[in-house]
Specification:
The protein is of the alpha+beta class. Among the domains are: 52-183, Methylamine Dehydrogenase, Chain H; 188-300 and 307-411, no CATH class; 417-693, 7 Propeller (Methylamine Dehydrogenase, Chain H); 719-761. It has ten helices and 57 strands. The strands form 14 sheets. It has a five-stranded mixed sheet with strand order 22-23-24-25-29. It has a four-stranded antiparallel sheet with strand order 1-57-56-55, with no helix packed on it. A hairpin with a 5-residue loop joins strand 6 and strand 7 (70-76). Helix 7 runs antiparallel to helix 8 (889-1086), helix 8 (889-1086) crosses helix 9 and helix 8 packs antiparallel against helix 10. Residues 419-692 form the EML-like second beta-propeller domain. It holds the Pfam family WD40. WD repeats lie at residues 410-451, 533-574, 659-700. InterPro entries: Beta-prop_EML-like_2nd (IPR055442), CFA-57 (IPR052993), WD40/YVTN_repeat-like_dom_sf (IPR015943), WD40_repeat_CS (IPR019775), WD40_repeat_dom_sf (IPR036322), WD40_rpt (IPR001680).
């Protein structure tokens, strides 16, 4: 059984997924990372994961249901795209949706219905099919083609209707409604075609869409109501004209989202504009506040308003509350301080409308607290025109602080991660990427400890075992840096260009770095180059130290795996396989077994230069390999981003287990924290931390006694600066304490005085209240006596009234008793009468029943009589037929049988009629009851008909209202037609005036042509003069060259003379020193004038010292040395002369080019001015000709 790996934490965010951010609850967001969905809790900083499909080729879209219980994920596969629905609480798959109508390779957008029961799935090219699903069954209900060739960007449901779907894209804005098992186009859209990038619903009837030219439109029932252009905001923000043009052309609305608080609009420049909806109730009051400012801004921005088409509804207004900026990305070069270099791809607001989450194309996640939007930023103006937006932005720019997004957790890499290393004594991971950053992560706290941006490209990184130093490979050098608390400081540099692989030894005393196809080993104490390991013929892709640092294992693209002895630099073992280019290598703890992977999809186990085991990987290319310290776990990284765990020990048929992680090739893989974690990085800019277990699913036990190092490095200057800051802050605190105590004393004094004043005031008030209370008491006593008297009087009156009411009530009771007796007698008489009526009814019913029975019995007797008569006739006929029976026996028998059957039928019918008549008497009684029921049913139907009539009346009234509105619209259109006719007449008048003006212009054109001819002659003369000046300039240049040559020769002569003078001065100084020494020696000899022997010896010594040495011929070596010195001096003199001449020529060339450039610019300016003049005249002529032809072009009044 292979080892187990569970994903613990993932750093990174995957771009290119539609709807790639969502909220599970107020504190948990869902976003893609690699091939997983991450559920990240912002408060607790924990993660949960939902893995994608094993055979997936990439995520394309996702969405969260409105009830926040499910998430739908669209993925590419080898056959057809698949939509998987997952339960966010159980983190399990619920359903998979496969469509047979979709022939595209991906789904570009998906959306849940408001009740979370249906899914709208938009397919990609080439068919662009929209499918409507009931995902719980799962069943495809309908499909329709939304586009022929244009790109569809987004699809969504109406928040109030599960059957209404909106689709936007390039020149696409349509509504579709599901009904009768099909999707059909709904409504008539009056929106002009644009490249729509995003949209969001305001309510069931209003929707906001964004375009690629910086505009967003509010659409109600398919008709645009309000249109805004945010490009003018960026124009005001930009101070430079070039930057302004760039921003205007690239600015677009990339994301939209709405809440009950307002509308968030994201632009491609990395700015989110927050708009507040102003209702019609408080609109009038807001307009009155801004009446003065609006009138002034309208006067200033009339021309700007002409260029922007804006349809303003009187009932809908929006106000710009503020702008939120994405932090500037240092890895992207932008000339504008307002352009962050990041494009916002998605916006999402939390369910409580408190947080706004934004995603960018640089793999970053940002958040902003909507409660922090400064209401002062809005400027108190309505954004109904571009001028108002500009004024609001000006007020925002006047503020010192801007509202800025902050990362959700930490910033991620924005490029392929090329290098990675793990520290031994600290829980640190170092990574480097193509975004020119080096980042240090903490896998215990799951946080980013340090992020350093560099100006050069970074290729490799290595961490010292202590975690205090780091090696970083740049394009020019390999740098050894100190890891400080918040910075990386260069300590030493190695002259290795573009180092792709570098690693510290396990002891930290050695460095191994790759320089081309050579491995160089340096000491970390002296930084000396100890060894150069040569042997590879191709690029070296991986190096690793053995556990005791006595061996170094390397592999390369030449198919070689070498083991090196790091003591003497010799090659111990080797294995070369030309058909494979190795990419990664690892070694067991004892240093005997080597594992390598390469380009032939094979994992090899090498021992003593021999391949022991080979395991093929037919379905995937292995890119990296690593083994645990215990040797019980072996992991490989794959090209598709999966992590593969092999069963140990290896055999030729070992099993493996794949784990879904990254979405692109795994570039590096390391074990960390004593085989407790596996660290992987990928080309998809993600870093993942896996918790690993052995094949018995037991976690590795770490040594609890060995803790992590907590020491850090800090420079002395930084420490002194921090200490000085601390002392300053301490003194400041003491000063603030003294100041606060003084302020407290002053406040105490003020409060004591205030208390005295209040106590005196309250005492006075208490005295006045006491007097008032005494007065109120006396008044209360007087009122009590008065009200007591009134109460006794009222009691007497009430007793009298009560006696009177009792007498009246007794009389009424007697009257009512008499009435009761009368009514009882009447009731008894009525009862007797009704009993008589019932008896009469029963008698009549019996009589009628007897009559009906008698009538039916008479009918039966009549029928029996008829039967008897018929039998008699039958007998007579039989007697008649007996005579001819002998002749026609067969015919008679047949006729007799027919007649017998016929009359038997008649007899049977008559018998049935008899029984039927008997039953009719009983049926009549039942009909009475049934008729009564039918009457009740008809009454109910009448009620229903009345309700339908009311409904039809309401529809008629609504239709009448529609007819009135249409009539009003016809009247308005008639008025517009009349206005256009008036304008046509005005244009005709203007045309006549322009014809007159044309005559004037013709005359002016003739005069201008006359003026142009002498200018052309002047231009010719200027050209000839320029040519003459160029010839003269060449002559001057030649003279200058000759003068410079003469000057350089004179300088050389001067230098040679100066050098000879120096030599002569040196020789004179030497001779003078020799004379001084000779004098001193002679003076010493004079001291022995009385001693001949010593005098002789001193004279001989003086001779040997001075005369013999000075007059002797110098040795050949000395002569050669002096000659070489002279040659060297002459060579340096000539070199200096050539360098000076080159510098002079360069300066001369620069002056000539500058002169020619200024002349060229002056001539070009003249030509440009003349071209502008000619084009202006041509424009005037074209407008005049157009007016003559009757074309309705817009006419500017300024010429």
């Amino acid at each position: 059984m292979a080892s187990v790996a569970n994903l613990k934490h993932a750093f990174g965010y995957r771009t290119g997924v539609s709807g790639s951010i969502g909220f599970f609850d107020d504190q948990t967001i869902v976003y893609p990372c690699g091939s997983n969905l991450v559920l990240y809790n912002i408060e607790q900083r924990t993660q949960k994961f939902i893995t994608g499909l094993e055979k997936s080729e990439g995520m394309t879209a996702l969405t969260i249901s409105p009830n926040r219980r499910y998430i739908a994920l669209a993925e590419k596969t080898l056959d057809k795209p698949v939509v998987s629905v997952y339960d966010l609480q159980a983190l399990r798959k619920k359903k998979s949706l496969h469509s047979l109508d979709v022939h595209s390779s991906e789904f570009v957008s998906i959306a849940f219905s408001p009740d979370s029961k249906y899914l709208a799935v938009q397919g990609g090219s080439p068919d662009w099919n929209l499918t409507y699903w009931s995902w719980e069954k799962p069943k495809q209900l309908a499909s329709i083609k939304t586009s022929s060739s244009n790109t569809v960007k987004q699809v969504s449901f109406s928040p109030c209707d599960c059957t209404l779907i909106c689709v936007v894209g390039a020149d696409i804005f349509r509504f579709y409604r599901y009904g009768e098992n099909s999707l059909k186009t709904f409504g008539l859209s009056k929106v002009e075609p644009h490249n729509f990038l995003s949209h969001t619903w305001i309510d069931g009837e209003k929707i906001v869409v964004g375009t690629d030219d910086g505009r967003w439109l509010l659409i109600e029932n398919g008709e645009p109501k309000v249109e805004y252009n945010i490009s003018t905001i960026n124009e005001e923000n930009e101070s430079d004209q070039k930057n302004r043009d760039t921003v205007c052309t690239k600015n677009s609305i990339t994301a939209l989202t709405s809440t009950s608080k307002g509308l968030a609009v994201a632009s491609s420049s990395g700015i989110v504009y927050w708009f507040e909806h102003i209702n019609a109730d408080n609109l009038h009051q807001q307009r009155r506040k801004n009446e003065t400012s609006v009138m002034s801004t309208n006067m200033r921005t009339t021309t700007n308003q002409r260029s922007v088409s804006s349809t303003i509804s009187l009932k809908e207004e929006y106000q710009l509350l503020g702008s939120v900026y994405i932090p500037k990305d240092l890895t992207v070069d932008t000339n504008s301080e307002f352009n962050s270099g990041q494009i916002i791809t998605q916006l999402q607001i939390s369910p409580s409308d408190e947080f706004l989450i934004a995603t960018t194309n640089t793999h970053q996640l940002y958040q902003f607290n909507l409660n922090n939007i400064d209401t002062n930023m809005k400027g108190g103006e309505l954004v109904t025109r571009n001028s108002h937006i500009n004024n609001s932005v000006k007020e925002q720019r006047s503020l010192n602080e801007k509202a800025i997004f902050v990362p959700v957790s930490q910033s991620f890499h924005n490029g392929q991660i090329l290098g990675m290393d793990v520290c031994i004594r600290k829980p640190l991971i170092a990574t480097c990427s193509t975004d020119r950053t080096v980042r240090i992560w903490n896998f215990e706290t799951n946080d980013l400890d340090l992020n350093k941006q560099f100006a050069e490209e970074v290729f490799s990184v290595a961490l010292h075992p202590t975690g205090l130093f780091i090696l970083v490979g740049f394009s020019d050098k390999l740098r050894f840096m100190n890891i400080l608390i918040d910075d990386l400081r260069v300590f030493h540099e190695f002259t290795i260009r573009g180092c792709r692989e570098c690693v510290f030894s396990n002891g930290g005393h050695l460095i191994a770095a790759v320089n081309g196809n050579v491995i160089q080993i340096y000491s970390t104490t002296t930084f000396d180059n100890l060894l150069n390991l040569k042997g590879h013929n191709g690029k070296i892709r991986s190096i690793i130290w053995s556990d005791d640092d006595h061996k170094l294992i390397s592999c390369g693209m030449d198919g070689a795996v070498y083991e090196w002895d790091t003591q003497n630099g010799t090659r111990i073992n080797e294995n070369v396989l030309k058909s494979c280019s190795y990419t990664s290598v690892t070694v067991s703890q004892d240093g005997k077994v080597v594992y390598a992977v390469g380009s032939d999809k094979t994992l090899r186990e090498i021992n003593d230069s021999q391949i022991v085991h080979e395991i093929q990987s037919p379905d995937n290319l292995l890119t990296t390999v690593t083994i645990s310290r215990s040797g019980r776990m072996l992991f490989c990284g794959c090209q598709n981003g999966q992590i593969r765990s092999y069963q140990m020990p290896l055999t030729d048929h070992s099993d493996w287990q794949d784990y879904i992680g990254h979405c692109q090739s795994v570039t590096k893989m390391k074990m960390a924290s004593f085989d407790e974690y596996l660290i992987t990085v990928s080309m998809d800019c993600s870093l993942m931390i896996w918790r690993i277990q052995d094949r018995e699913a037991r976690s590795t036990k770490t040594d609890k006694e060995i803790g992590w190092m907590e020491e850090i490095l800090i420079t002395k200057s930084d420490l002194e600066e921090k200490n000085s800051i601390m002392t300053e802050l301490k003194t400041r605190v003491e000063e603030l304490k003294i100041e606060n105590e003084y302020q407290l004393r002053l406040k105490d004094m003020n409060y004591n005085e205030r208390i005295k004043e209040l106590t005196e005031k309250f005492i006075q008030e208490m005295e006045t209240l006491k007097t008032k209370n005494q007065l109120l008491k006396t008044e209360k006593e007087r009122n009590e006596v008065h009200y007591q008297n009134q109460l006794t009087e009222l009691n007497e009156q009430h007793n009298q009234q009560l006696q009177h009411i009792e007498s009246l009530s007794n009389q009424k009771l007697i009257n009512e008793y008499d009435k009761y007796n009368e009514l009882q007698n009447i009731a008894q008489s009525k009862e007797v009468e009704y009993e008589k009526q019932l008896h009469n009814i029963e008698v009549t019913n019996e009589r009628l029943l007897n009559e009906t029975i008698e009538s039916y019995e008479t009918k039966i007797n009549d029928k029996l009589q008829i039967i008897d008569n018929l039998t008699n006739e039958l007998k007579e006929q039989t007697n008649e037929y007996e005579l001819s029976r002998r002749l026609i026996e067969e015919d008679a028998d047949r006729e007799i049988l027919e007649i017998k059957i016929k009359y038997e039928k008649r007899l049977h019918i008559e018998h049935d009629l008899n029984t039927q008549l008997k039953s009719e008497s009983s049926i009549m009684k039942k009909k009475f009851a049934s008729l009564q029921k039918e009457i009740d049913e008809y009454k109910d139907e009448i009620k229903k008909v009345n309700v339908e009539v009311q409904k039809s009346n309401t529809t008629i009234r609504n239709l009448e209202k529609d007819i009135q509105s249409l009539r009003k619209e016809l009247q308005e259109r008639d008025e517009t037609i009349q206005d256009k006719e008036k304008r046509i007449s005005d244009l005709k008048k203007k045309n006549q005036e322009l014809e007159k003006f044309k005559y004037v212009l013709d005359y002016k054109i003739k005069e201008l042509k006359k003026q142009i001819e002498p200018r052309e002659n002047d231009i010719k003369n200027y050209k000839e003069q320029i040519q003459e000046m160029e010839v003269e300039l060449q002559r001057f240049n030649k003279q200058n060259d000759q003068l410079e040559i003469n000057i350089s020769e004179l300088k050389q002569k001067y230098k040679s003379v100066e050098n000879e003078l120096k030599l002569e001065r040196q020789s004179t100084r030497d001779i003078e020193s020799l004379v001084r020494r000779l004098k001193t020696d002679l003076f010493n000899c004079v001291g022995f004038i009385q001693e001949p022997k010593q005098l002789k010896a001193s004279i001989l010594a003086l001779y040997k010292k001075h005369i013999h040495e000075d007059m002797g011929i110098h040795s050949p070596l000395a002569v050669d040395a002096t000659a070489d010195a002279d040659i060297q001096k002459e060579f340096s003199r000539q070199r200096q002369h050539l360098e000076r001449s080159v510098i002079g020529l360069r300066q001369k060339l620069a002056r000539d080019t500058e002169m020619h450039r200024s002349d060229y610019v002056r001539i070009m300016q003249v030509n440009i001015n003349s071209l502008i003049f000619f084009t202006h005249i041509l424009i005037i002529l074209i407008e005049v000709e157009a007016l003559q032809l009757g074309d309705s072009y817009p006419i500017n009044g300024d010429y």
